[in-house]
Amino acid sequence: xxxxxxxxxxxxxxxxxxxxxxxxxxxxxxxxxxxxxxxxxxxxxxxxxxxxxxxxxxxxxxxxxxxxxxxxxxxxxxxxxxxxxxxxxxxxxxxxx
Amino acid sequence: xxxxxxxxxxxxxxxxxxxxxxxxxxxxxxxxxxxxxxxxxxxxxxxxxxxxxxxxxxxxxxxxxxxxxxxxxxxxxxxxxxxxxxxxxxxxxxxxxxxxxxxxxxxxxxxxxxxxxxxxxxxxxxxxxxxxxxxxxxxxxxxxxxxxxxxxxxxxxxxxxxxxxxxxxxxxxxxxxxxxxxxxxxxxxxxxxxxxxxxxxxxxxxxxxxxxxxxxxxxxxxxxxxxxxxxxxxxxxxxxxxxxxxxxxxxxxxxxxxxxxxxxxxxxxxxxxxxxxxxxxxxxxxxxxxxxxxxxxxxxxxxxxxxxxxxxxxxxxxxxxxxxxxxxxxxxxxxxxxxxxxxxxxxxxxxxxxxxxxxxxxxxxxxxxxxxxxxxxxxxxxxxxxxxxxxxxxxxxxxxxxxxxxxxxxxxxxxxxxxxxxxxxxxxxxxxxxxxxxxxxxxxxxxxxxxxxxxxxxxxxxxxxxxxxxxxxxxxx
Amino acid sequence: xxxxxxxxxxxxxxxxxxxxxxxxxxxxxxxxxxxxxxxxxxxxxxxxxxxxxxxxxxxxxxxxxxxxxxxxxxxxxxxxxxxxxxxxxxxxxxxxxxxxxxxxxxxxxxxxxxxxxxxxxxxxxxxxxxxxxxxxxxxxxxxxxxxxxxxxxxxxxxxxxxxxxxxxxxxxxxxxxxxxxxxxxxxxxxxxxxxxxxxxxxxxxxxxxxxxxxxxxxxxxxxxxxxxxxxxxxxxxxxxxxxxxxxxxxxxxxxxxxxxxxxxxxxxxxxxxxxxxxxxxxxxxxxxxxxxxxxxxxxxxxxxxxxxxxxxxxxxxxxxxxxxxxxxxxxxxxxxxxxxxxxxxxxxxxxxxxxxxxxxxxxxxxxxxxxxxxxxxxxxxxxxxxxxxxxxxxxxxxxxxxxxxxxxxxxxxxxxxxxxxxxxxxxxxxxxxxxxxxxxxxxxxxxxxxxxxxxxxxxxxxxxxxxxxxxxxxxxxxxxxxxx
Lengths: 97, 477, 484
Hints:
The structure holds three protein chains of three kinds. By secondary structure, chain A is an alpha+beta fold.
């Protein structure tokens, strides 16, 4: 699969990365060559193979329901880019329910 | 053309755990912004989620209650999208393998019939934070206290055919989650939220129409209004030759209308994949067995039992079993000498509920507990006071003036059952109202009420009404 | 002094031959004097290092010292360190002072180890040459025109140049072993789940694993002893008991079966590197081991599979860097989307963005099955290859890297060529197995690493094999000229 500039722009938008037109061209070429590498996977028939998401054959451990964390707002917000009244500020959020 | 409405609901119930689904931060409502958002909730670099056992238990209880059971293996997946109230840029949810599979609930219809509504699935996920839109110099403020609160998303089949059915289903789920003790059901605080998928189709057509998704339905009243509006809108649109768009619409309670949501015009591509930070949740027989034994009597079963055991009608039984606290109160009342189950039911559904509503008090915190009310009902049953006097006594009890006997004694409210005393008053009333007596005897039967009223007035309501009636009839005939 | 092992330094400290303060001061001086040529540290924390050293000396006097107490080490800048900048080699986190400690960091803190600073690395651990760091490339102490390998290149260079006794690293596709190989040190990637990932900034969660980077296997055992163990804060942490790694270092190798992976001796392998590896294998034969050829038939698929799985996970893991709660935020965002897009575009470097985009694409609607699901299936095949191999042999051997260290800038223009640097190491991460890089005879005067892969939780066996080799060879004792 070879990607063109429009593909790259769509992907960059999904990933929320600003890219210039020149960059889009360069990424199109880089990503296409990476995909060519990746598509070597197609040489194998995996019809009857189950996917492996994880190297461990373990089940999820369950935590006891207890409150263990204390308020550390001041510490957590000490490196925040923009705060006010304990809130993280961002450019106005358009209603989204 | 005749149209048929098709509705499916997605209900988000916040699970009543102490700590969050993947962190040890508190889930308590109403704290100062970001004081209950720990490093995991904030999505700091390097943090990892660990699943809260109680969230799994609660989801499992729900699964058992709707006959779906608990899936032996379920998997958490990441739903990827950017939004400021979503700290990690993905929500941990369940996608292909939810913890609860297909189940069902039965709703009551208006015509006394019932209908089975299918539940497609219910899955565990984490709640997002909140964006506050008050003006911070043209910016929004983000509070992540809610981020990571466990949610059970309950997805119904598109089985409902009217807004009324949708409300009945929603109430049913609301009752159920509170019975199970897995959600406090508080819609104002957002503990119980609902989105609806709505479409219409010509009656008789098998294929579904194009649906709209309604969001922001955060009260029962809004749900019904929003659904009515949306159904009308779609029918008008179609009848006018237009087309329904598949879109997300927001309900505006102030204008009472739904409108398309801005900012969601682009199709979402959530790029779900299994969360590599979490392993498959595996449930064994022992876990399920423990859940089964811990399951309380469910609302349908309780209602059936109330009908059979106490001889109540379906309506009364439904009212009394609408929540666990009311049902528990009722049974405690009967145990406390509440006497006749029907009388007790009337009191709980009538005066008690009225007073609770008036003062905005939960039945569990009622100033007149089941023991006190039982004492009162016992005095009605043994004819110490009339039902009417009992209302006075109840109000006094509500104000904390003591138990029924003390109030009756202190206020001298004891019913006059001495027939000699009543006879004398009856005779006085007859003697003092010759005109009315003449009219009554001439056939104006209605005046009986007048005579009874006069006697009751003279006795300050303490005469036994049945006795008064009998004596009046005897004297006047 | 700077050639001593952890055990020797510990003995010296306990005997009062020198203090941790002196030792620490010595290392800090070396860093100040020598690191300008290498750029192996992003942060050096002199004050806190000296303070910890003093505390370690007190602890020593009180008789409560452990094997790592007072030993100056360095952490890869991927581990969160409370109160110390944790940049992950990125502009995105250049201003990020972590409010909490990673599990690994806490463990070393409790052990009384002295942290000299945080080592340079490829940005978010994405790279094989340490050239993608926002803080500039790291140089190989054996030849500063050459790369140290990556992504734990700072740790490898610092340990090789004796700027720290030992260091931590992380390995997602070879990021401990390849730089260890290129810098001539010992680097162990433990079994997935052996070392807690809590506080280790995630690149690809199902592949990432922290491990020690040291001058000897004996030191690696001492470091792993501190790092390994169950952590309830990491759902993927293993509850397997942790053995005494030091106790098995000298175990006999007679009858041990070594599988030489035939696919790893392919056309892409530098013949001189191949010769060094084969010579080392001969040493094992002399030590009593039996050597057989084995096949891992799906080896060629490891790199393609990895470049789906790792970017997919990274695309999601790196979404949290959005300029809202911490890290880089672009100047004067016009609106929310602009805040996201420019903060991320300006905060991340080119390689990170490439991988985010590849991963985003591999997970997107319509491509998930062809890329991500397919890769997960092949991952299963690759893992099965290893399982079958371990039915007949105890360990697998081969080269770590197809070549010795390449020149700075040599591969930066072609991402795919760079990706092939990890061709022999990647499969191990996909399967979750432990593996070690051990220095063997140099080729073209540059270090070469022997790759030993063990079965799940066989770290003690790998350390044993590495240690036995290091008792009959002295490649691991060589120091680069200028850093003696």
